[in-house]
Specification:
The chain contains 24 helices and 23 strands. The longest helix is centred in the middle third of the chain and has 37 residues. The strands form four sheets. The protein has a six-stranded mixed β-barrel with strand order 2-3-8-5-7-6. The protein has 825 residues and is α+β, with helices and mostly antiparallel strands. Helix 2 runs antiparallel to helix 9 and helix 22 runs antiparallel to helix 23. A hairpin with a 7-residue loop joins strand 2 and strand 3.
Length: 825
């Protein structure tokens, strides 16, 4: 054992001396390996944090996400109505705990006025949410059952980040007060650092039962909650799913008129976290991880070619070592030691590269706010061990064949100082390596090309609104201060008037959901005088809008009219008037085909949950607006915002110049109406549209970067092999030229030798790409996995790059002096 360690130490010392004596070779090999290993380390850090590590909760394998299914149409992942949640809590026996939470946001202000109001992400949750997750507070306590009911005292649990940011980590925070939506809450607990549920950006929690009124709390039609359960020991997910499904189906059978799910669903929380399907992210990350793995293989092939070339150039050294008694196994081990050390040095540099890259990956990773593991991305022990292991395997893979070939030396010929033929096997091996590089590069380029074309299609989507010179900002009027619909309407009537006084603002309007910014809510409706077959429903997106919105957003009027200040039901809920509604073109096409929609009356059957609403007469049809760039058009109905039914609204301003220049003045005008009201989400329409494409942009950027890196490495590999071939065939080329061979013939000879493996690699790559690009199906938009334009252009690009890589050594071959070449030989 001691002798083996001593021999290993000698091998390492000798290898380091050899690398120090050839710094150019060492630097090139280390840089190539650092790019491949660093990319793999960075992507593994993301995959490990998001997909491989267990969720940061107690016994996470027992946690399941619960859903209603098939509320409208076929969807197994519908959010849960409070009434169904309560039914499951009371009747399900396969769970230790069932908890629920809902997404919200708060206007945050100090109880003493010690800091500026701001908008924070929050949640309302059942009292047992934290116990269900198995996460306790670091200070104080969580909610008691008696605090999770209507009329209970107002209490809040805050997150670690809010505690540090607004209270400087004060240890006496418990029972101090905080103002949320203009109401004072007693702080009863502080959660640990980086805890956030249902989303990691949540900064404060309040009790669910205290947040909802009794009718909402027992509604089976208002689907607003994210539900989770902790299974009893021994209970499987399938058993839990069957139990939840049975409870939900029984209720639907007994109350067919309710807008409830036709059943229930349960899936591991690991797969469907916080009402978001983690498998969507999993597909994207695994594709990118596979891509960076291809880059590492190409880097490994490049280094193998470098080592093979260097090993064949060290035949005299190897012959001397063999002549003085070194065995072939000893020589192979020595050469392998050099390649492994190169790989480990490359891995060390790659870890430095990865530590820089992981921060950018965490910020831009798809759906970062929804993934609880995203804050754990970084170079930790797992990433270090992964990189160390991959580096050793890479070093062995890259150095094994060159080591065996380098050790096969003809001692007599090598000691005489004569070059020994590399043989056909070596030449074939190098050709195979080059072909593999080219094939892998084509697969990556094809994937990047498809994503790039998808992104281009996405950028060209007609959103339905104008993006230039348009600014949006949001407000949310707290019910504690704006207690009546009349007060809400009065505020929103003044808001556009104040903003229009800002120089540079040409038009302004209000809407409850910024265009191209998400779903924001849908409702089931009926058309007056028509009945639907049992089990069928009509569903539409719905927004509130004021009279100025459609002009400010540039949404065209197709038929009829838009809103006027006179539209509205009034504020007497017991004696409402017939109200007005504006619908989109897709609404008219979907629900009133071949009919004039203007004049038709619609109503919402679930309105009785809160107050007696009127019916709505359609007064106009406007152009469609997409909710996301990659989403199909959906029917939309607009209701009068000045009815005072909507507390949150976005003001959209069209400006004559740069919209950023009016942001401060517009915000000041809104603040003049209510100084305690935070104005948030100040964005241009260009920024909103860019955010809608951000997740696809992430995949395009990374896969494009990996493909470009692979293409560069393949070109360098092809160039290096041909350069070596030219140097080995210098005497042959000299003889040909001495006998009168023209330069064009020499150039053709080298080009053909280089292009053969390149063309073979392109052919193999096309076959591989035809299969591998099918994995991108869910990431594509507007193109298919077999897009002809991509499969024609990518081989042509690769063929052009390969030609250039071959042409440089070919041109150099024509400048060989026959006399000098023959003299050296």
């Amino acid at each position: 054992m001691l002798n083996s360690l001593q021999v290993l130490r000698q091998d390492v010392q000798f290898a380091l001396r050899q690398l120090r004596n050839r710094p150019g070779f060492a630097i090139v090999a280390i840089v190539v390996l650092a790019l491949g290993l660093g990319g793999n380390a960075a992507m593994f850090s993301v995959v490990n944090a998001v997909l491989l590590r267990p969720l940061p909760y107690a016994d996470p394998q027992r946690l399941v996400a619960l859903f209603e299914r098939d509320v409208v149409g076929e969807d197994p992942y519908n959010m849960v109505a409070p009434g169904n949640f309560l039914d499951w809590q009371k009747q399900a026996r396969g769970f230790d705990q069932i908890a629920a939470s809902g997404e919200t946001a708060f206007n945050l202000a100090s109880a003493t006025g010690s800091f500026t109001p701001e908008r924070i992400d929050g949640a309302y949750c059942s009292a047992n949410l934290f116990a269900t997750l198995g996460v306790g507070p670091i200070l104080g306590r969580t909610f008691r059952d008696d605090e999770d009911r209507p009329g209970a005292p107002r209490v809040a649990v805050i997150g670690y980040e809010l505690w540090q940011h607004r209270f400087a980590g004060a240890r006496d925070i418990i029972h101090r007060q905080i103002r949320l939506d203009s109401e004072l809450y007693d702080i009863v607990g502080v959660m640990p650092r980086n805890f956030g549920y249902p989303y990691r950006t949540v900064r404060a929690w309040v009790p669910l039962g205290r947040r909802l009124d009794p009718r909402e709390l027992h509604s089976h039609s208002d689907h607003m909650l994210t539900a989770i359960g902790r299974l009893r020991p021994g209970v499987t997910v399938q058993q839990a799913r069957a139990e939840i499904d049975g409870i939900a189906r029984r209720f639907k059978q007994e109350h067919p008129e309710e807008l409830a799910g036709k059943g229930g669903n349960a899936v591991p929380l690991y797969d469907h976290n916080a009402n978001y399907n983690v498998q969507v992210v999993r597909a994207s990350l695994l594709v990118l991880f596979g891509a960076v793995g291809c880059v590492l293989i190409i880097a490994c092939v490049n280094v193998a070619n470098l080592l093979l070339t260097r090993a064949l150039g060290r035949q005299r050294e190897v012959a001397i070592r063999a002549a003085v008694g070194a065995t072939r196994a000893r020589i192979v081990r020595q050469l392998l030691t050099e390649s492994v050390i190169l790989s480990l040095l490359g891995g060390a540099c790659g870890l430095l590269l990865a530590s820089w890259a992981t921060g950018a990956l965490a910020d831009r990773a798809p759906y970062a706010a929804y993934l609880p593991g995203i804050d754990r991305i970084g170079v930790d022990r797992a990433v270090f061990l992964f990189t160390f292991g991959v580096a050793i395997l890479t070093g062995i893979a890259a150095g094994l064949f060159p080591a065996f070939q380098g050790s096969r030396s003809d001692i007599v010929e090598s000691l005489k100082g004569r070059s020994v033929s590399t043989g056909r096997s070596n030449a074939r091996f190098r050709d195979v390596l080059v072909a593999a590089e080219v094939a892998l590069s084509l697969i990556l380029l094809a994937g990047a090309g498809l994503l790039l074309r998808s992104f281009s299609h996405l950028q060209n989507v007609h959103t339905g609104v104008r993006a230039d010179h348009t600014l949006t900002m949001a407000t949310d009027l707290p019910e504690a201060r704006y207690k009546t619909r009349a007060e809400v309407a009065a505020f929103y009537l003044q808001m556009p008037e104040r903003v229009l006084a800002v120089p540079g603002v040409e038009s302004a309007g209000l809407v409850t959901c910024a265009p191209v910014d998400g779903h924001c809510g849908d409702r089931v409706f009926l058309i007056e005088g028509r009945t639907l077959p049992p089990g069928q429903m009509m569903d539409t997106l719905y927004r509130g809008a004021d009279p100025g919105y459609f002009k400010a957003a540039g949404i065209p009027l197709i038929e009829g009219r838009t809103f006027t200040p006179r539209d509205g039901a009034g504020f007497d809920d017991m004696h409402p008037q017939l109200d007005a509604a504006v619908v989109s073109q897709s609404f008219a096409r979907s629900f009133l085909p071949g009919e004039d929609p203007v004049g038709k009356v619609i109503y919402f059957p679930d309105d009785s949950l809160t107050r007696k609403y009127p019916h709505f007469r359609i007064v106009g049809v406007v152009g469609d607006v997409v909710k996301h760039l990659d989403a199909a058009l959906q029917p939309t109905v607009y209701l009068p915002l000045l009815d005072g039914d909507f507390n949150e609204a976005y003001i959209l301003m069209h400006t004559s110049g740069d919209p950023h220049t009016v942001a401060h003045a517009a915000r000041h005008q809104i603040a003049s109406l209510d100084p305690d009201l935070p104005v948030f989400e100040i964005r241009t329409m260009d920024e909103i549209i860019g955010r809608s494409a951000q997740n696809r942009e992430f995949s395009v950027m990374l896969l494009g970067l990996f493909a470009a890196l692979a293409l560069g490495l393949a070109a360098v590999g092809l160039y290096g092999v041909l350069s070596y071939v030219v140097s080995q065939r210098a005497a042959e080329i000299g003889i040909r030229m001495a006998l009168g061979a023209p330069s064009s013939e020499v150039r053709r000879l080298i080009l053909v030798q280089g292009m053969k493996p390149a063309v073979a690699g392109i052919a193999a790559g096309l076959i591989g790409a035809a299969f591998s690009t099918r994995l991108l199906g869910g990431l594509l938009f507007g193109v298919g996995p077999g897009d002809a334009a991509t499969f024609v252009s990518v081989p042509l690009v690769l063929l052009g790059v390969s030609t250039i890589a071959c042409l440089i050594p070919a041109m150099r071959a024509t400048r060989i002096d026959p006399t000098l070449a023959l003299r050296r030989e």
